[in-house]
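writing this on my phone so excuse typos. first protein, seq and then structure
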Amino acid sequence: MTSQLALTAALFGLCVGSFINVVVWRIPRGESCIWPGSHCPKCGKSLAWHQNIPVLSWCLLKGKCAFCSSSISPIYPAVELLSAGLWVLLALPGVGRMGAPDQLLNFLAGAIFVSWLLPLALIDLKTMQLPESLCKWGLITGLLCSAGLGALQGAGAEMLLYHCLAAVLGLLAFESVSAGAEKIMGVPALGLGDAKLAALLGAWLGLKGLGVAVALAVLLGAMFGVIGRLSGKLSAREPFPFGPFLAVGGFLSWLACDSFWGFVISPPFRIL
């Protein structure tokens, strides 16, 4: 990866991260992500362009609103930096689960994918909910990308079929686990939003990628739960959001592609 490509990816990632902050703030409140423009949530004053530069504006303003001096959370620049870092990782050679098209196409598909996962994970962390609209359109976009990039390799219908199958299996599997747990323990083990996020992952990653993502999510979630309970931070039946673990598993599955995770699933399921 050239330094020019890394810099370009980082700059675009910062800008997208800025918009992700808007999505995370507004969607749970039922507000439009487009209108009105960026403004201070405390005093309502619209921000000038130079007050809305990712990371830099926060530093120049010393973390305070230029109008009312209310504190601006450091989470905002942190999300922008995280988005930039993820975009740079996606620009690495060999990254991507959409078969073997041009590296740029795989990068663009991955950028869309991770830019959908990040707000879902952050919203779930804040609200314990996964917005249906984001899950639905993320699933549709994943299927369209699967079909489009598959078509470039002469396998558009086949790619779309297997990714549709993965999406359906992800949805049904998570709903079944949740329903079974509710019968046994009296409470659902997973929320309906988690099932929809699993379907989104299937649309983007296919059967094998979904399996890897879910396995990683379960492992990370179990580790978090055990540590939380041993440390006293979580009570015996206290719920915690599982969406962020699914998002991390999905991103790692995409990032490493088959070079590292290929041994996890047996050969009959090697079609993406």
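second protein below, same order as before
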Amino acid sequence: MKILFIGGTGRISTSVTKLCIEKGYEVYLLNRGIMSARIPEGAIHLKGDINDEKNIAGLLKGHYFDAVANFINYVPEQVERDIRLFSGITGQYIFISSASAYQKPLSFYKISESTPLANPFWQYSRDKIACEERLAEEYRKNGFPFTTVRPSHTYDEYTVPFAIHGRHGSWQIMKRMREGKPVLVHGDGLSLWTLTHSRDFAKGFVGLIGNIHATGESVHITSDESLTWNQIHELVGRELGVAPVHFHVSSHIIAAADSGIGDGLLGDKSHSVVFDNSKIKALVPGFEATIRFDIGVRESVANFLLHAELRVEDPEFDRLTDSIIRAVKSAKKSLISTT
């Protein structure tokens, strides 16, 4: 099969690219080459900016792809562009949406593909919903052969997943853990969360490529494992050789301190999520997520400790964390003194 990935070198897509090459597919990666070091051997690189539609149309002239997947679409205008670019030159267009698009708060604890899409808290999720709706409309009207994939929280060897972090990723939280400083945990830390390793995600995703039963369908790909956020922090701490000091605080307080972090909490990570993966298992017989978080995070933490370039400090986030902790402690002290 001849496949085009827009992006193809990110947290989710790198594992997908590698698995496709292992299977002998002809894989093209269309991106700006910023992360060229992560382009796997065997992939054909088409250098370009997908937002430059005229140039990309020329670059794609004469090509036909069995499947196209865009890993970097976020708003409906980008989907409109892709409909123009790929109508008639692909047998399948795969849109990467987000499991955060599912109803918040949930009316039933277990999420399936029939769970309504509605997120009043997070614009990112609402934009993904709008993208999905536009693709469904194009499929009904003109037969545009889309498949929507909804990842949840997916990680790889270059990421250690946390709910609350700054612009520079997860190292600052790990650094605080190693120094014995408290780390923020939203709520009481007992809500359930699902983490999926990118290599597991890739198995399900690649099974959908060229799969005629996936045309016009939406499907999430996640692990069956659910952990509390306290457990997630503790497992990271175990790999660092420390017991993390949790500081539990309301998601609404965090959102008041930083709306960028708060939107993702209120619209996604503060809610318990447990997924019904029956549909991906039916579409891709034999699919199973086999990398438990305690195993996957061991690789991730070891990689951070081995590679200095991953350990990017974030003093701004550190100051934000300390300011939230001080404010909450002060509020508690005031309440105690008035009772």
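The first strand starts at residue 2 and ends at 6. thats all i got for now
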